[in-house]
Amino acid sequence: MINDMTKGNPLSLIFWFSVPLLIGNIFQQLYNIADIVIVGRTLGIKALAAVGAISPIFFFIMFVVVGMTNGFAVITGQRFGAKDPDGVRRSVTVSTVISSFITVIFSLIIAVFMNQILVWMNVPKEIHSDAFWYIQIVIAGLIICNAYNLLASIVRALGDSKTPLYFLIFASVLNIFLALLFILKFHWGVPGSAVAVVLSQAVSVLLCVIYVKKRFPILHLKKSDWLFALKKESIPFALEHLRVGIPMAVQFSILGIGILIIQSVCNTFGSDVIAAFTAALRIEQIATMPMISFGVALAAYTAQNFGANNFSRIRSGVQKTSLINISLSIIMTLLIHFYGSDIVGIFLGKGEKHIIEIARDYLWISTLFYFFLGQIFIFRNALQGMGEATLPLASSIAELLVRSFAAVYLAVKFSYFGIFYAGPIAWVTASVILAAGYFTNLLRIVKKARIAYNMQKRLIA
Q: Residue ranges of the domains in the chain?
């Protein structure tokens, strides 16, 4: 169902929009969590380390796709907020053509250089083969990943966060079933888990396309919309999408590169540390899902209100979402501190006490800084919803530099324990930059809009 977010209570709109989005994000994470639990429980610590060692590559790829598709959807949301149905449809076709082309080229480049990438990441030889085939299979299915994220981003831009959810839940359950089937029955090992991820996500794409075609008239694309996307006349419109989408893809990829660097340092400490770090990161991803969901909801809310020139509603939405973030940060911190060891045990088993302790120590440190991480999602998404790409990109570069330096320097000084502080230090840095950028940018936009309004009023008079 399409949701006009330019009217109504901001907190209520953002909250109810984010709830199904949160559920969807959690189920999407089940793709990765199922890999870790099933591989770790059935194939052992080395197999778990193989998946964990190259997980940053998977996240890097996902970040690029998600950043690009979310960026394109900002234009779709702005067209919807401006009550321009033709612009909405043309935005969809232009986004589809550009994202598909970029995804194919990106997949080929990564696949060709994968062996060298694994060398750069210091992946141990004993887990190299499993790591290589897992990530190559995921890359082969990247076009499917792009299709789902583009569909989900467009539908969210129109104010509907529920439609993709039901199919994602089904696909997540299917992924678990297929992973168990391929690993236990067919004995495909670690690669079988990757095949399950790709096939289950393909099902979610198919179901989502069918439903959207039946229930979303505004997204019923015409032949003229596709022809427009392939003509020279579409170049300015395509550049408008790229102006937002590419910086967001670069921004997200920078975050992925930071994780790659940390993982590369982590890989030098052996399979036990890799396995512990892998489990801890999966738990952290679940713990921070509510923050991410509110951020994405805020992006859709901001894009629509920016298109409608409702700047006061944007300010109100950011303030109220920040209050929610404070509560979420406290709750997640308490949960991790009291039940962290038990949760880690789900991934690794009760017998792996040393590995559980390493993962628990990481979580105890990182949770203290969740508030700053939550504010990153809020300010970054608000800026992107307003079509501002430079400041989020600058904050991502700063985050990368700080995270990388901290990881390498602190690892030398304090071994793997020093790596645990790299993320929190980077979160504080990025959140300060984004907060300053958000308030400065909003004041500039409001001032510009007032000048334009006064000029128009004088002309009418």
A: 10-460
Q: What is d(CA 432, CA 153) in angstroms, rounded to the nearest whole number?
A: 27
How far apart, in Å, are the Cα atoms of 45 and each of 51, 67, 133, 361? 10, 32, 17, 19
Write out pLDDT tens, residues 293-330. Answer: 888 788 878 888 887 778 788 888 888 888 888 888 88
Token representation of residue 245 = 């989408």
Task: Give residue-wise pLDDT tens across range 43-70.
Answer: 777 787 787 777 778 778 877 888 888 8
The DSSP line for 334-379 is HHHHHHHHHHHHHHH-TT-HHHHHHHHHHHHHHGGGHHHHHHHHHH
AA letter at 213:
K
- Report the candidate in 155, 388, 418, 115 with the shortest Cα–Cα distance to residue 268: 418
- Cα distance between residue 140 and residue 61, in whole Å: 12
Helices (H), 390-421: 390-414, 416-419
Cα torsion angle, 282, 28, 393, 259, sign: positive
